[in-house]
Amino acid sequence: LPWYEMPGFLCLAIGAAAIIILLLTLGFRSYRHRGDLIRKLNRTNKLEHDRQSIHELIARREPLPRILQRIADCVGENCPGSACAIVLNHETIRVVFSQPALPQALLRSLQTTTNAVASCEWWRDIDSVSRDYFTDPCQVVPVRSGDREVLGVVALFSSQTEIFTDSVRRLLETFGGIAATAIENTRLYERLAYQAGHDALT
């Protein structure tokens, strides 16, 4: 008999094919899992690099607008498919730092919000302002000072609901904390410079 007609050959062939398919499936899953781990590691490395670069700007006493603009850019870069804005509305600091991806009409609306009379909950209005430009609610995290005073917000806008995850919120909180540090450091340096100049005159 030909070898392919020998008893049990069909069962053996089916078994071998099943094993090959199983090995290929496991290999593909392992490859995909390894790819996911590499992408996650790359995102983590980029995030850490961005944080360090911003802390270096703060340590060098770079202008506050440059630091806050860099923070807005970093948030957007780490959240593809979104646009970030840092909105400050506290005392004399009323300004918006945003990415080019943010619609200009929304940017003007945010600037109008910052120029309006500030209430203790002014930042909660940002979500309703953004509804005319994005279908989904924005993610808003307050920028708080050391005594928990709201200095502004980090806002993330997107029409992709899946972007707004717990990890993204933690990312916004992280950069919001860095923004608060930059603002308070700038205030401190300005206060010290004012006192030094005032003392010199007296």
Can you put this structure into words, describing what you see?
The chain is an alpha+beta fold and 202 residues long. Helices cover 59% and strands 14% of the residues. The protein contains five helices and four strands, in the order ααββααββα. Strands 2-1-4-3 form a four-stranded antiparallel β-sheet, with helices on both faces. β1 (83-90) and β2 (93-98) form a beta hairpin. α1 (9-59) runs parallel beside α5 (166-201).
Give the helix tally. Answer: 5
Helix content: 55-70%
Secondary structure: number of strands: 4
Average residue pLDDT: 82
> What is the H-and-E element order?
HHEEHHEEH
Distance between the termini: 114 Å
Broad structural category:
alpha+beta
User: In this structure, how is the largest beta sheet organized?
Assistant: 4 strands, antiparallel
Which geometry do the CA atoms define? Answer: elongated
What is the topology, as strand order, of the major beta sheet? 2-1-4-3
